[in-house]
User: What shape does this take?
Amino acid sequence: MDYVNTASEEDLEQALLSCLRSLRWARRVAEHRPYPDLDSLLAAVDEAAYDLGWPDLTEALAAESLPTLPPDTYSAAHTALSAAHAAYEARFGHVFVICLDGVSPSETLDRLLEAIRSRLTNDPEEERAVTADELRRLARERLLHALRGAGPQSARGCRPAGAIHH
Assistant: This one.
């Protein structure tokens, strides 16, 4: 937390950008310092996210990568997931995002396929709301991971906890 409150605004914006993936989102959080504790910071991250417009969310989506499967997943699963991602992107015009925090690697494929198939039935406005919520969850997880990482360097750049979005 010390880094969040003492870094220059520019340095903090860059660190937050690697977690939040939207410049407006990162700036809004950086502008409202100091934060007395982690809960206050996370509340500010959430609050700022609710004020983002679709262009800001599109910026964040563009920086997201597709969720990946564990390396030992059979090839037919990769094909099924690729087809589901293509159908999703064709329908909604952006990458599918999901926060899989707490999902075991053995459940990843089933959870991904279930979620993408379910969300394909959403109308575009409903899916925008779901996507925005998933982006908030992903950003929070990246920020928590960075702040709880080993040593002060970890607060300067957000990294996901693994290849799968946690």
Notes: The first helix runs from residue 2 to 6. The two ends are 21 Å apart (CA to CA). Helices lie at 2-6, 9-20, 23-31, 38-50, 54-62, 75-92, 108-119, 124-147. DSSP finds eight helices and no strands in the chain.
